Amino acid sequence: MKKRKTVFIFGALSLAVCVAACGMADSNIQESEKAVETEAGKLEQPAGETSVFGESAADGQIDFSMLQEQNPDIFAWLYIPGTNIDLPVLQSPVSDEYYITHDIWGHENATGAVYTEMPNLMNMCDFNTVIHGDDLEEGSPFKELHRFEEADFFTAHETFYLYLPDNVLTYEVFAAYYDESSDILRRYDYTTYEGCEAYLKDICMGRSMNRNFREGWEGLTPYHFLVTLDGNAREDGTQYVVAGALIHDEAGKIDRVILDE
Fold this sequence. Notes:
With 261 residues, this protein is an alpha+beta fold. It contains five helices and ten strands. The strands form two sheets. Strands 2, 3, 4, 5, 6, 7, 8 and 9 form an eight-stranded mixed sheet that branches. Strands 1-10 form a two-stranded antiparallel ribbon.
């Protein structure tokens, strides 16, 4: 018989951790949260300036009223310090494929925009929100995700940020690797504890070239909130992925109900 369980996060100090999927002690998560909580207040200037719609998260503020006047499909802003990824995140209400071939202005463009699909909630309360972007061509939105292939860069750049109209979310990058090119969003049933565990097991046990995994995150559970930054499928049947776990919820609004066996 399935039971419903509500999961709440109230800021960095209340990140919910239940039964460890891969064996990390609770103290490791607490130490990691405190370290990143200290860093979250001083955002790093990105390597390249994007100035999309005249906005940048480098100053810690995003004008969503202006952005949504330009394109109402904009619901979030992604900022990855140390890269030029300082961009709006969109979701089309019409087609999950729209922003594969259209830019943030809605113009046809081969490299598209950064976007989520309709199965993902725009309030970021899903277990795993998959954010897609072209990473194959120079100048494409997610090209600089590949900086996380460098061990030194991965070690030095722990966090990325998602701005919402009423919240700021901080994620710690815990893994960066080449995944199989099948659809991550539909490969697992994230509405169940079992489906979430299957995804986490694949990350913990995965082996791929240029894989980086941050020490201390072996105990991720279905009670965490993840964002997967997802590049394009390549000719060799892989896609590059950077995965982060929520460590700070500024407004204390992130929660969800999951089905537990």
